[in-house]
Design brief:
The protein is mostly helical and 83 residues long. Helices cover 58% and strands 0% of the residues. It is built from one helix and no strands. The protein starts with 26 loop residues before the first helix and ends in a 9-residue tail after the last helix.
Length: 83
């Protein structure tokens, strides 16, 4: 029976080192990017909350304002003033 022997000249070298990509951005760039995105997000969030407060207060006053307008029209008063 013939034994299996290595090929003449030997086997190719085994690749055991990792092929890592080239180094990326510095950590400072990532921190700056995250900070910029978070700042923009907080700006939009606060702007939206302020607008929501304005809209909700406006919609809360709308029924009473329209009721006053209806009452003025029932009494025969006009909203236009001559001057």
């Amino acid at each position: 029976m013939v034994q299996d022997l290595p090929p003449t000249g030997g086997y190719e070298p085994v690749q055991y080192k990792r092929n890592l990509p080239a180094r990326g951005f510095r950590p400072g760039y990532y921190l700056f990017g995250v900070f910029a995105i978070m700042t923009y997000g907080w700006y939009k969030y606060i702007k939206g909350v302020r607008e929501l407060k304005y809209v909700s207060s406006q919609s809360a006053l709308l029924p009473s304002a329209s009721a006053v307008g209806i009452a003025c029209n029932l009494n025969g008063q006009t909203e236009q003033r001559s001057g």
